[in-house]
Design a protein that fits this description.
The complex is a heterodimer. By secondary structure, chain A is α+β, with helices and mostly antiparallel strands. Chain A has helices at 38-47, 195-203, 274-277, 293-312, and strands at residues 5-10, 16-18, 56-60, 65-69, 73-78, 81-86, 91-93, 99-102, 107-113, 118-123, 125-127, 157-163, 181-186, 206-208, 216-220, 235-236, 241-243, 251-253, 260-261, 265-269, 285-290. In chain A, the strands form 4 sheets. A 7-stranded antiparallel beta sheet of chain A has the order 7-6-9-4-1-12-11, with no helix packed on it. Chain A has a 7-stranded mixed barrel with strand order 13-20-17-18-15-14-21. A 5-stranded antiparallel beta sheet of chain A has the order 2-3-10-5-8, covered by helices on one side. The longest helix of chain B is centred in the N-terminal third of the chain and has 17 residues, at 23-39. Classes of the chains: A alpha+beta, B alpha+beta.
């Protein structure tokens, strides 16, 4: 029996363990998975003195309410999240990007994410989780990863196998910036679409639909007209690919996407914008802006440097 | 040979082997896939072979399009050993409990149930690729008179083990999933087993598969 553990009082809507994800498996049909918003995942771990590839609890919209039992431990939440920490005789409203020490009997109540989708809870230590292909990331579609590949559920107990000895309290002033324009690189089937369709894609606004999850983000708006063929021979996909099926509504592939698809690809989201894309909640407006490959590579380099800077200052 | 290499976004190479879907083009794709996989180029994190394409995705923190393209262009896949492939027999039960789309197939193909089964069973099919969902094999080619389109409205839940047809291909649903293929039968075999990390897939690209019919009783007793 582990002496340090969490009890799930309320699981939240879509609460899973995530880490860096798993690679080298697309060819057998297993997607990358991993934390949707990679930057916020890394910051969460850094704030509690973890290795950067440690597992965290990812939640979407409504988060979990958990009770902690055991020795003193640090916790931190990243994203744009409303939460409270309940101690013996007080309840405080928590701030994201700040670590807190919790002790036996304390509760963390993650009410919701605020005008965003994903948030991260890191604990200063290591959860006792099953790894599959070097990752504990839960893929609920294929039931792969820790927790039998299922979302966290009410009444569950999660053990920690290790607690960090470094209990320094950390804080950073990170603010999640919102972007209206998502930068995209032209897709391999761009010429399948009518001139009007291409214009609509780059000039009109699309709305993020409710039918969005870790697999994909569906968009609604003006229809994009296909003039060649609404199907292609099925071929590989990567995250960020924007497919347009026969109905003319784009679907963006996200971290748990099917590895093969047969709809034409109009564009691919530039890696630099992926973390911010996944945080766009249903109802948000999206506009696509075309960039070329070398700009996309340079922008990602800058984004990555910024991430490393942020981490080094924590 | 690769006809053209372009970029798919900023973190993947799109290798086009031609427009046709046939065994000879697909064998080329699989050769490249196996050769690159063995060489473990630093930064490449996924390879997705399909009928006539190979998508190579990489970690943009470690490498970039130019480097990976240059690497792939200088690979000699012809020298690699032949595709190491298996021949597998897959038991399938086509009892009415399982063959959910037999009526639809009879109408579209204008063939009787008996004729459809006779055309489908006991023939060799080639595994072109696996994926979409974990371990799902895409097997071909079906006889010309066996080719039907996808359902207009896909099912929300296709049962695990379903053997299904679309166009020139057959596939097997490795676990319950949404899907729009025409369901002909069901296999009691586990085609995907995530507990076997080294060999989760029973059927791999390049393998040959023959479907053998079993009765409902044999199906029920199969795993005992």
């Amino acid at each position: 029996m582990s002496s340090n553990y969490l009890d799930i009082i309320r699981p939240g809507i879509n609460t899973t363990f995530q880490d860096k994800g798993r690679d080298h498996l697309y060819h057998i049909g297993i997607p990358f998975s991993g934390a949707m918003d990679n930057r916020n995942y890394l910051i969460a771990n850094k704030l509690v003195n973890n290795n950067l590839d440690s597992a965290v609890i990812e939640f979407a919209y409504q988060g979990p309410h958990i009770k902690y039992s055991g020795e003193k431990i640090n916790c931190a939440i990243t994203g744009d999240v409303i939460f409270s920490i309940k101690k013996k005789d007080t309840e405080i409203e928590g701030n994201c990007y700040e670590s807190y020490q919790i002790e036996n009997g304390d509760e963390i109540n993650i009410i919701s994410t605020n005008k965003s989708v994903y948030g991260y809870l890191a604990l200063g230590g290591e959860f006792d989780l099953k790894f599959q292909w070097n990752s504990c990331s839960i893929n609920t579609k294929a039931n792969i990863g820790s927790n039998d590949g299922k979302k966290l559920d009410v009444g569950q107990r999660i053990n920690l196998k290790k607690i960090n000895s470094n209990k320094d309290i950390k804080k950073t002033n990170y603010i999640n910036t919102k972007i209206e324009n998502i930068r995209v690189i032209k897709g391999t089937n761009f010429d399948y679409f009518s001139e009007e369709g291409k214009k609509i894609f780059y000039e009109k606004e699309f709305t993020v639909s409710k039918l969005s999850d870790r697999m994909g983000m569906r968009l609604e708006g003006p229809k994009i007209d296909n003039i060649v063929n609404t199907n292609i021979k099925s071929e590989g996909l990567i995250k960020g690919v924007i497919q347009v099926p026969a109905d003319g509504n784009p679907i963006i592939m996200l971290s748990d996407h099917g590895t093969i698809g047969g709809y034409p690809k109009i564009g691919v989201v530039a890696s630099v914008d992926y973390d911010r894309l996944v945080q766009m909640s249903p109802g948000s407006k999206i506009k696509f802006k075309e960039i070329n490959l070398s700009d996309a590579e340079n922008l990602f380099k800058l984004y990555e440097m910024e991430t490393q800077n942020l981490l080094s200052q924590i | 040979m690769i006809k053209n290499i372009s970029n798919l976004g900023d973190a993947a190479l799109y290798c086009d082997f031609g427009n046709e879907v046939n065994k000879s083009i697909n064998s080329q794709v699989i050769k490249y896939f196996k050769t690159i996989k063995e060489k473990k180029f630093e930064g490449i994190n996924n390879l997705t072979p399909s009928y006539n394409k190979l998508i190579i995705s990489y970690d943009l923190k470690k490498t970039n399009f130019k480097e990976v393209k240059n690497y792939v262009e200088n690979i000699n896949a012809q020298d690699s050993k032949d595709i190491n492939s298996k021949k597998l027999e897959i038991p399938v039960c086509c009892h009415e409990n399982f063959s959910m789309d037999i009526k639809r197939l009879e109408e579209i193909l204008k063939l009787s149930r008996e004729k459809i089964l006779e055309n489908f069973l006991n023939k060799e099919y080639f595994c072109y690729m696996t994926g979409f969902i974990a371990g799902m094999p895409f097997l071909g080619d079906l006889d010309e008179n066996m080719r039907a389109q996808r359902l207009e409205t896909p099912r929300v839940k296709v049962p695990k083990g379903s053997v299904a047809l679309t166009e020139q291909f057959a596939n097997i649903y490795t676990f319950e999933s949404p899907g729009g293929w025409n369901i002909l039968g069901n296999t009691p075999l586990d085609i995907f087993d995530s507990s076997k990390e080294d060999t989760p897939n029973l059927i791999n690209p390049g393998d040959t598969v023959i479907f053998k019919e079993i009765t409902l009783d044999q199906y029920k007793n199969y795993n005992e």
